[in-house]
Amino acid sequence: MRKPIVGGNWKMNRGTPENAREMLDELIPKVKEMKDVDIVIAPPFTALSVASILKVTNIKLGAQNMFYEEKGAYTGEISPLFLRSLDVEYVILGHSERRNIFNESNELINKKLKVALSMDFIPIVCIGEHLEERKAGKTKNVIKEQMEGTFKEITKKEMEEIIIAYEPIWAIGTGETATPEQAEDAHIYVREILTEKYNDNTANRVRIQYGGSVKPHNAKKLFEKDNIDGGLVGGASLEADSFASIIKAAQETSN
Ligand code: 13P
Fold it and tell me: Could you name the CATH architecture of 5-254?
């Protein structure tokens, strides 16, 4: 049985320690009894110091990106070693905003992924298609290509540590959520590819989150689907009330 996992990707919001703390002070008591769901928040780098208040809670800390080198002349980049020193456990890689705005390729994400795994971070790897690609019937081709490139030379054992976030780009920040059926179909296809590349057992172990306008009113219907193991949440993760309701939906639909 896969334990659902709900992540809050704060993107470029709540970036001061005070601003992040304010939200977490409200969130922590609301979710402290929710043991059947893994909870992660990924604030901006500048607010990762909230690690100290998360230590004694059931909320884990994630980073939104990471570079593949440990140190050197890489202006503006963040080393995996720095993240480790801040008690970061999860790292989001290949978010569509990184792919589209910062031109991150599958090859680059694959390089980062290998380093993240070698340093025992739990990677949350994002994939997903553009609206034009969906309209042209190319959703599966895009998913396949992204998975082939991003998971190149990743072993079976490593794959089982990775969390995949299926985030159709047309649903991100638009309020237009994929229907539970659309999301489920994509997740089933992701598992088919994992079966082809590894085996059934691995395909059944990997947790696949759905991301793209997950809100309190639609979370439960999405998470009820057999192959949707929680969500990666943007906008609705910025406020404690809405994020806690989404976490509760995952808790209620677990097992
Ligand atoms: P929204 O929930 O704001 O659509 O963002 C989704 C997302 O990109 C999470 O990584």
Answer: Alpha-Beta Barrel (3.20)
